[in-house]
Design goal:
The complex is a heterotrimer. By secondary structure, chain A is α/β, with parallel strands linked by helices. Chain A has seven helices and six strands. Chain A has a single domain, classed as Ribosomal protein L13 (Ribosomal Protein L13p, Chain: A), CATH 3.90.1180.10. Chain A has a four-stranded parallel sheet. In chain A, strands 3-4 form a two-stranded antiparallel ribbon. Chain B folds into two domains: 128 residues, Glutaredoxin (3-Layer(aba) Sandwich), CATH 3.40.30; 34 residues. Chain B is 28% helix and 13% strand. Chain B is rod-shaped. About 8% of the residues of chain B have low confidence. By secondary structure, chain C is mainly alpha-helical. Chain C folds into three domains: 56 residues, no CATH class; 154 residues, Ribonuclease III domain (Ribonuclease iii, N-terminal Endonuclease Domain, Chain A); 78 residues, Double Stranded RNA Binding Domain (2-Layer Sandwich), CATH 3.30.160. In chain C, a hairpin with a 2-residue loop joins strand 2 and strand 3. In chain C, helix 7 runs antiparallel to helix 8. The longest helix of chain C has 22 residues. Chain C is extended. The chains are: A alpha/beta, B alpha/beta, C mainly alpha. Chains in contact: A-B, A-C, B-C. Chain A: Belongs to the universal ribosomal protein uL13 family. Chain A: Its main location: mitochondrion.
């Protein structure tokens, strides 16, 4: 079964918590690690994920090539610029159980930086995973009639001079 | 146990009965049992009892004098209790005693009863009596049913609302995070609605009073 | 002692040293484990065993008849046979049932070869008894199945009876009862055809016993082979959608229309389609499939299964006391062409 998850405004680490049971198959009563009972998850808007607090500046991703002087420490915002899907991918990878089934389960996770998903994948989707963090509507995305009908809460006093 | 200890090379199988035995009538699967023993050797004493006073037994039989007793004491009773089992008694000189059981489905069990007491032979015979003829295997599950599901097997859509099948994905309705508390916007709108209702009620009351006073 | 050692006579003098009681293992981790006193015979034994398994695979090994052993008493075996099945057999009829025509022919030929000019053999073969037995079984199986599955169409009942009386089932039951060693026939081991005929003859031999005993025997050994089996696997309906349409037309209900309930992974190899078959907006059944057509067919099958009450959750076939009480039904069930839901409501399900 194919699930869709919208990553907009979502914390990638909390989202990974939610996604991993679908990749494992833990949400099913027929689950068994040897059963290969995992599902596919398509993650869209990976570019719009939201790390909490100051993590964009402070979270560091370490990588070593194995060769001498091959250590790199990349900040989250730098990594996101290079590859917007990388942070989400690493979050899910580190949350999956650390066994040989991990790569197979990761292969079933399809991450897209934005809304553009190929039709061959979009046609497979039959359910959506709920987000954890509510996405507020942008003020300029509200329909005009709603804006007009909203009660006026405040107005300037009559003798106030707006400069 | 026909003398085997468990090894990884044993097969495994589910619980089964040959030819649905037991659904209609129960048929004892033991077809025939052969008691092979030596007439004189001490190892077969428990199977075929000897009169100790006759002095025909060899000198080293003093602690293994019980195996030959079975044939003299208990065999006829066993044959009488199990009329469906054909019992063969085969004396073989200078060979160790054994039991050979053959079953209806072609299975065979061999059990050496060398130096066994009469009670031991009795127990092994009782064990062989109840076997089905299938080889000793690890049982994968101790239950079998022809109706594994009553309410229906689980599908990924068992406890899901069928509306998810007709939505176009991505679907905002299904994706939205659950709101546990009303937002400030909602609360303002509610307040506004309540205020409007109160104003309407006041207006109606005023109109009624005005109508009454004009009538009066 | 392992059979492969006994089979090779040349190795007897080596065998003497390993005559001690041994553990019956076929996999040896070391030669000492199988009781070998000298380790240097291990390669010999390994080669002998290899040859034995090869000959067994090619079918060149002689299979011994149980009746050729010293410990064999035919009268005792026949007595035990009857007692084991909890059935009283007439001794003469039983022997006749177990004698195959090939055996009679073989004996006649042997007597002629020995010089007996007029072989007056009194033994008769089991052909008549086999025919009688087949009649007894079909006379019971049909009415029993009709009574136990009153909503199943007549074509289904006859398909089930045909399956039960087929050679495979008859020979399987014959082997399972223990006729392999008792039957007198030319070939060894007896072929399934011979075995099936012999089992039918055994049932025929029961003809003299009271009808209730005979019926109980057929029920416990033949009909019991249906337990755990799917009826729609034995009785395959081609084009179930057309059959369902016909039934609904007979019942004056709406045409069957198939609707997609859910689908998953359309563009993948593991696509699933769940299709439901509806008539007048009422769900008749549903089915799963890898393609829509398979799912529609499966849904029609499911609808038919629900109509005929042969689902997985249906009542099991009655045995024992429930079956003794069951009134046998000789008149035919509804045929598939005339099957309708109104008529099925008139059928009493007990």
């Amino acid at each position: 079964m194919w699930h869709l998850f919208d990553g907009q405004w979502q914390n990638p680490l909390d989202a990974a918590d939610k996604i991993v049971p679908y990749l494992d198959g833990s949400n099913k009563p027929i689950f068994h690690p040897l059963n290969d009972s995992g599902d596919h998850v398509v993650l869209i808007n990976a570019r719009d994920i939201a790390l909490p607090g100051t993590e964009w500046e402070k979270r560091v991703y370490f990588h070593h090539t194995g060769y001498a002087r091959g250590a790199t420490w990349t900040l989250a915002w730098q990594l996101h610029e290079i590859d917007p899907t990388m942070i989400m991918r690493k979050a899910v990878y580190n949350k999956l159980s650390k066994n040989l089934l991990r790569h197979g389960r990761m292969a079933r996770l399809h991450i897209f930086p934005d809304d553009k998903v190929p039709d061959s994948i979009l046609d497979n989707i039959s359910a959506q995973i709920r987000q954890q963090r509510p996405v507020p509507t942008r003020l300029d995305h509200y329909p005009q009639e709603q804006v007009d009908s909203f009660p006026k809460i405040f107005d300037w006093p009559k003798d106030h001079i707006i400069n | 146990m026909s003398g085997k200890t468990w090894s990884l090379f044993w097969g495994s199988n589910f619980v089964r009965a040959p030819l649905q035995n037991g659904v209609g009538r129960y048929v004892q699967q033991l077809q025939r049992i052969t008691f092979k023993f030596c007439k004189t050797h001490g190892g077969s004493k428990g199977m075929r009892a000897e009169d100790v006073d006759s002095g025909t037994c060899s000198s080293r039989t003093f602690h293994i004098e019980m195996a030959r007793e079975y044939i003299e004491k208990e065999l006829v009773g066993f044959a009488r209790d199990n009329p469906g089992v054909v019992v063969y008694v085969k004396p073989r000189r200078h060979r160790s005693p054994c039991l050979k059981a053959e079953y209806l489905n072609g299975g065979e069990e061999y059990m050496s009863t060398q130096n066994h007491t009469c009670e031991d032979v009795h127990k092994w015979v009782a064990y062989l009596r109840g076997r089905s003829g299938y080889p000793t295997e690890r049982i994968r599950k101790y239950q079998h049913t022809d109706h594994p599901s009553i309410q229906g097997v689980w599908t990924p859509w068992t406890h899901r609302h069928p509306a998810i099948n007709i939505k176009d994905y991505p679907c905002e309705e299904l994706s939205a995070a659950p709101q546990t508390e009303p937002t400030a916007t909602h609360r303002l709108l509610e307040l506004y609605e309540r205020q409007k209702q109160q104003q309407q009620q006041q207006q109606q009351q005023q109109e009624q009073e005005a109508a009454k006073s004009s009538a009066a | 002692m392992a059979a492969w050692r006994r089979a090779i006579t040349g190795a007897k003098h080596i065998l003497a040293s390993s005559c001690r009681p041994t553990i019956n293992r076929t996999i040896f981790s070391s030669a000492r484990v199988c009781g070998m006193q000298s380790r240097w015979v291990a390669p010999l034994y390994r080669e002998l065993k290899h040859r034995h398994t090869k000959m067994k695979r090619m079918g060149l090994l002689p299979v011994n008849k149980r009746s050729e052993y010293i410990e064999w008493n035919y009268d005792a075996e026949l007595y035990g046979f009857g007692k084991r099945l909890q059935v009283e057999f007439d001794a003469e009829t039983l022997r006749e049932a177990l004698t195959d025509s090939s055996y009679v022919a073989q004996e006649t030929q042997r007597q002629q070869e020995l010089g007996v000019s007029d072989p007056g053999l009194t033994m008769s073969n089991n052909k008549d008894l086999a025919a009688r037995g087949e009649r007894i079984m079909s006379d019971y199986c049909g009415p029993y199945l009709r009574a136990a599955l009153p909503l199943l169409p007549e074509e289904g009942v006859s398909a089930l009876v045909e399956y039960l009386l087929s050679e495979d089932i008859m020979s399987a039951v014959g082997y399972g009862i223990g006729l392999r060693d008792l039957i007198l026939c030319k070939e060894h081991p007896p072929s399934p055809t011979t075995m099936a005929r012999c089992f039918r003859a055994i049932v025929g031999a029961l003809g003299a016993s009271p009808a209730a005993q005979c019926q109980a025997f057929v029920r416990d050994f033949v009909v019991a082979q249906l337990v755990g089996k799917d009826i729609d696997v034995i009785w395959k309906i081609e084009n179930p959608m057309a059959v369902l349409g016909n039934i609904l037309h007979q019942s004056r209900q709406g045409e069957p229309e198939s609707r997609l309930i859910f689908q998953a992974g359309q563009k993948t190899l593991q696509a699933i389609y769940h299709v439901g078959v509806y008539s007048d907006k009422q769900c008749m059944g549903s089915g799963y499939g890898e393609t829509v057509d398979t799912a529609v067919k499966e849904a029609a099958h499911d609808a038919l299964r629900r109509l005929f009450h042969i689902t997985d959750t249906a009542r099991p076939l009655p045995f024992g006391r429930d079956a003794d009480v069951l009134p046998l039904k000789t008149e035919a069930n509804m045929s598939l062409d005339h099957w309708s839901i109104d008529k099925s409501k008139n059928v009493i399900m007990c």
